Every structure is written in structure tokens, then in C-alpha cells.
Write a sequence for this structure.
DNA sequence: CTGCCCCTATTGTATATACAACTTAATCAA
DNA sequence: TTGATTAAGTTGTATATACAATAGGGGCAG
């Protein structure tokens, strides 16, 4: 390739990734802005389109860029804080393991919020909220009991969805990705109803993830995801060097 | 491409990924075994090598396959789950909350590894490993039982440290930051000894974090951190950058 | 003004090819 | 026997090319 502002790593596609990361870190391409097209990068950097494509595609898979066919590639940098959990989708997890995902919708309704529930959404008592309860199965074994509260302002058509076809998580992500996410992980023994739904014994410990999301317009969703301890665990494995690169260092 | 056992998704590389996932799920390629080479897959599936390469590379990036240049592609035994956790230090957590941290070192020894323990470090049976057991207190209430195994190659002076002054976590981080980290979070009910140490009842659920770290030189540490469910939880909250990238966003 | 079509830019996928880098096994020479 | 070299097989990277799919703007007809 021709002489440019690329140096450090040997591999060209890594150099291009670094070039883009630098451009994002330096503020040359602010959050939400468009970066040059593959064609432009190709000419500027003197690499082939396939090589540029690989670099951009990998950064996109890592969640740093957002690509829209026919439009362009946009900066998507999120800022992770302290201990963190990505938003994980149970059906994606299951499919990634090559297993079959099914879900059973127990409840899908609107109701009037009491004091505590309204407060969690920063709304007045008596406001209308949506409420769903879904059990997720991996190869016909229950692995998650999902209780979710959703603000109608955020997802007005929540009640019309068929969540056996598309997970509620996916649907909500499709409406608009949240601007802020909170996760809290507990170990609990759930109540008898949840025990029956998850087909577990009375003393079996469960992982309970409470997830709350916000958009600019305010609180959007609040979910409690309960997993049987013996059948499910949360985990991660990552290379630290990669992670530092994502942070922009 | 020619007619084969591939169907569902439209995209060829997705079909190939599914083909490989099916083969892994069915046991055709057990954990650790070698899958066909790119060249073989190319002929069997009738796709080009670049397309096969993309499929295998993406599965490799997802952690399902392990590729070794010059050797082949292997099924990765451990299936990583979703989500991320940074390396958190219990004493930092406690101090951040303005509370007092104390720790009690129950055990600090070297021992000869049995089959299973050696395997976890990818070493031979009978190799010398370090072992420590420490209970951490927040305002004199036990909040974590820490069991740790450390490779002497990584921290040769581990046994000489005073872990009531500096947490073992901090000490290990100081030697050399790991190049790779794995976290797995379970919900469990610990054994009687751990129950006594943590001063909890027989059925109280606990959060158990298994953390493994690697350096370039190989496996470095393996830790099991057990927290009483009612006294501790893992959490995170972070902002996600706006990705309404279209136009003036 | 409105709706439709078409053109362009951009990303998405697929292929053929080439050479580099690495691993293992086989071969050959001392 | 030992050591070095070679050869074959496999993954890693890079390129050139082609066509498909999508989004948006501009122009044209009504």
C-alpha cells in the first residue's frame, strides 16, 4: 500500500481498524457522524475494498460502528462503565449454541401502576403501563422466566406483538436502542410460581438479572430475568488488549 | 453452489456457519476435535474458500472454534456466554461505599496438582501450584469467600505476601495485567464450610464468580469468588451513545 | 403539487487467485 | 543416530472483480 498515516501493526486490516479507532478517539468523527465510505477509505489508504470491508465489518461486529446499506457507516461508540453486562438476548444465546429456542407467553397486558411501579418509571400513580411474562425454553427445558414492564410512550404497540416469533428484547431493541442501561445481578430462590414455571426444586438457587433501560425521553423498560442456577450462567471471555483498543487506548 | 445439506438462511456464509453449528451440536465433531479444513469444506459445500473462511473466522471470533495456523480448526470445548465483567476488586468496592474492609487469610500454601487442577492450567499432573483461601469482610460482615489457584511461573513469590495488607487480586494485577480474562457467574448454594465462613443458612443462594486469567506465557490464575446473595450483587450502569446516525443526527 | 421511476452512492455477498506464515512429517546428509 | 532440509497441508492476509440489495435524491409525467 502507499505511504499514509498507518504504521504500528503489520496486518493491513488491523492498521485500518487502528486508523478508524484513532479517528474516533481524536474526535475527527464524533459519535453519530458518518465515516468515509469504503470507496473513499480505499483511495485514501491505498487498500483494496475487501480489506477495508473486513476492517469496517469487524469494528461493526464489535459494536463500534453502525452500517446501513445504501447509506453509509456511522460512529456508534458507547462508553462502558465499571463492571458491565451487555444486553444479551436469550434466543441469540441459544441459537449460538446451536439449540432450539421456544417461548411461552403467559401474560401480556396493560395495567394501572401503583405508587412504587410508577416511581420506577418516574411517572404519576395510575399511569398505564404494559406488562409481560414469558418463559423461554432451550430444547424444551425452561431456562429463563422474564417479567417485563414497558412504558407505552416508548413502545405503544407492545401489546400487539407476537413474542413467540420475535423475543420482546429484540422487538424493543428494534424500536430504539436505549441510551442508558442498568444491570443488577442477584442470587435468589424465586417464589413458588416461578419455581413451577422453571421446573426446579424449592431451594434451587437462581441467577436474577434486573435490567432497566432509558432513552432520552425517559425510562423505557424494566425487566427481571430469572435463570435456574444449574442450567444457566452468565459469562464472558475477552482479550484485554482488544478491550483496551475498544476503549480507544 | 451445488446441492447439499444446507438450506435455511439465504446467505451462503450463514448457511455454512449453521452447517458447522449443526455438526458440533450433533456430536459429529466433538469438543476438541478437528473440523474439516477450508479446502475440504470448499469441496463438500461447493463454496469458495473466501466464503468458507468468513464463516469459520466468524465462528472463531465468537469463541466456538479455535484455529491454529498450519494445523487446522478445532471445536472449542468451553462455550463462552454473553456479557462482560471487568476484574473487580472487593476491597475497592467496599472502600468506594465508604465502609471498612478487612480480610482473613485461612490458607496460603503450595501443593501438587491432581489431574483436574493441572488440566485447568494446561499442565501435567503433579505440578506445583499455589493455593489461597481468604474471607473478606465489609464492616465485620463476611461478603466474599475467595479461593484462588496461582501458577508459580506467573507469581513465584505468592506465598511470601501478606494478603491482609494488600488483596491478592491487587497483588496479582501488579505483577502483570492478564492478556485474557474469563468470568462465569453462577447461582449456587455453597458447601457447609463456606456457609459457616460466610455466616449464612443452609439454603441461602450465593453468587459465585469463577474467574480465570491468562498471560502470553499461559494460564496464570483461577479464582472462585462466592458472595452471599442477600448481601452482595453485581451491577453496572452505563451510557450508550446515540446511534440515530442518519443525517444530522 | 404529487406520485412514480430511475439513477447514483453505499454497503452486502460471492468468487478466483496469489502469496505469506506456520506445523508436521518425511527425507536426506553428516 | 542426529540434525538439517524439504515437502505437503493448513490457515492468514490481500487483491481484483462482479453482482445484489438498499436508501435517497432528482427528474418526469400527470
Amino acid at each position: 500500500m502507499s505511504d499514509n498515516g498507518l504504521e504500528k501493526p503489520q496486518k493491513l486490516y488491523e492498521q485500518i481498524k487502528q486508523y478508524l479507532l484513532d479517528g474516533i478517539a481524536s474526535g475527527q468523527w464524533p459519535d453519530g457522524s458518518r465515516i468515509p465510505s469504503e470507496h473513499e477509505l480505499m483511495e485514501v489508504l491505498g487498500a483494496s475494498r475487501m480489506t477495508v470491508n473486513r476492517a469496517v465489518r469487524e469494528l461493526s461486529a464489535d459494536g463500534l460502528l453502525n452500517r446501513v446499506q445504501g447509506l453509509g457507516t456511522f460512529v456508534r461508540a458507547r462508553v462502558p462503565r465499571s463492571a458491565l453486562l451487555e444486553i444479551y438476548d436469550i434466543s441469540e444465546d441459544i441459537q449460538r449454541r446451536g439449540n432450539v429456542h421456544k417461548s411461552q407467553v403467559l401474560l401480556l397486558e396493560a395495567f394501572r401502576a401503583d405508587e412504587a411501579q410508577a416511581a420506577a418509571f418516574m411517572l404519576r400513580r395510575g399511569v398505564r403501563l404494559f406488562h409481560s411474562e414469558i418463559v423461554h425454553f432451550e430444547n424444551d427445558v425452561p431456562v429463563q422466566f422474564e417479567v417485563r414492564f414497558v412504558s407505552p410512550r416508548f413502545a405503544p404497540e407492545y401489546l400487539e406483538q407476537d413474542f413467540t416469533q420475535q423475543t420482546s428484547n429484540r422487538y424493543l431493541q428494534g424500536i430504539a436502542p436505549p441510551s442508558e442501561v442498568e444491570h443488577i445481578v442477584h442470587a435468589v430462590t424465586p417464589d413458588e410460581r416461578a419455581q413451577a414455571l422453571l421446573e426446579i426444586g424449592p431451594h434451587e438457587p437462581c441467577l436474577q438479572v434486573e435490567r432497566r433501560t432509558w432513552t432520552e425521553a425517559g425510562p423505557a423498560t424494566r425487566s427481571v430475568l430469572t435463570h435456574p442456577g444449574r442450567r444457566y450462567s452468565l459469562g464472558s471471555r475477552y482479550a484485554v488488549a482488544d478491550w483496551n483498543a475498544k476503549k480507544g487506548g
